[in-house]
Every structure is written in C-alpha cells, then in structure tokens.
Amino acid sequence: MTAAMPDETGVTAVSGLRILVVEDTLLVAEVICAQLEGAGSIVIGPAARLPQALALARAEELDGAVLDVNLNGTMSFPLAALLEERQVPFIFLTGYDNGSVVPPEYRHVPRIAKPWHYATFLATVAACFRRAG
C-alpha cells in the first residue's frame, strides 16, 4: 500500500506520527505496520514480546502505540503502565471479545477487535494519537 488513506475529514491525520506496534503474530503485525505506513506513519517495531516492547517504549520518542493484549501468554498491561507514565496514548487491538480481560484502570482505553476494519482502525489511531498543538 503506497497511498495514504484519508480520515473522515479528508486529511491524513496519522502522517508522520511515530507509532509503536506491539503484536505477537507476525502476519497480523505485518498488516498493522503496512496499514500505518501506508497512511504515512512511522512504525516503531513491531515488538512481539513484552521485554522488547518495554525497551522500545523507554528508548523511542512516540506519538502513540497499538498494543495486542496477550503477547504469547504475557499480558501487555505493564507496557500500558509505562506508556501512561510517559503520557503516550495507546489503543488495544485484540482478539478478546470481552473487555473484562482488561483491568479496570485500562477500560477507558479504546479497544479495537480483531479482525478490524481499516477505516475504523485509522480513524481511531488519528483520534487517539493526534499531536497536541
């Protein structure tokens, strides 16, 4: 994918955003990265495991993050805590249909179910990761 996908206003709102992708399934990670890069975002990662994701979240300048909830049996909530501490917005992109797997402190975080619709995904990314100013 080479062309940017415009948001609902017709402006590509995710272009230039530095977005951490955390997903343990290679094919899914490739799709997420391709969709974000196709819209002009700069992808950091993808990270498939929590230690790698934590290292990237500590080291990189980020505008947002897309997190799978379950990383090969390890929940991504320690990463969510680090991102909140750094004031980096994030969304969950998960196969869990039921939001009860998400701890109460993260239930306000936008959650997109797998499989997702491309336009919905980009609109959510644009709304959540918009740069201040």
Q: What is shown here, in short?
A:
With 133 residues, this protein is of the alpha/beta class.
H/E order of the elements? Answer: EHEHEEEHEEH
Level-2 CATH architecture: 3-Layer(aba) Sandwich
Helix content: 25-40%
Mean pLDDT: 88
If helices are DSSP runs of H or I spanning 4 or more residues, what is the number of helices? 4
Please compute the radius of gyration using only Cα atoms: 14 Å
Structural class call reads alpha/beta
Q: How is the CATH topology named?
A: Rossmann fold
Strand % is 15-25%
Number of strands: 7
**Weakly predicted, low-confidence segments:** 1-7
CATH superfamily: Response regulator
How many domains make up the coordinates?
1
Gross morphology is: globular
Text of the CATH class: Alpha Beta
Instruction: Give the biggest sheet.
Output: 5 strands, parallel
**How are strands sequenced across the largest beta sheet?**
2-1-3-6-7
Straight-line distance between termini: 29 Å
Please provide a written account of the structure.
It is a single chain. By secondary structure, the chain is of the alpha/beta class. The chain has one domain: Rossmann fold (3-Layer(aba) Sandwich), CATH 3.40.50. The protein is 33% helix and 20% strand. The chain contains 4 helices and 7 strands. The protein has helices at 26-38, 50-59, 77-85, 118-129, and strands at 18-22, 42-47, 64-67, 70-71, 74-75, 90-94, 111-113. The strands form 2 sheets. It has a 5-stranded parallel β-sheet with strand order 2-1-3-6-7, with helices on both faces. A two-stranded antiparallel ribbon has the order 4-5. Helix 2 packs parallel to helix 3 (77-85). It is globular. Mean pLDDT is 88; it is low at 1-7.
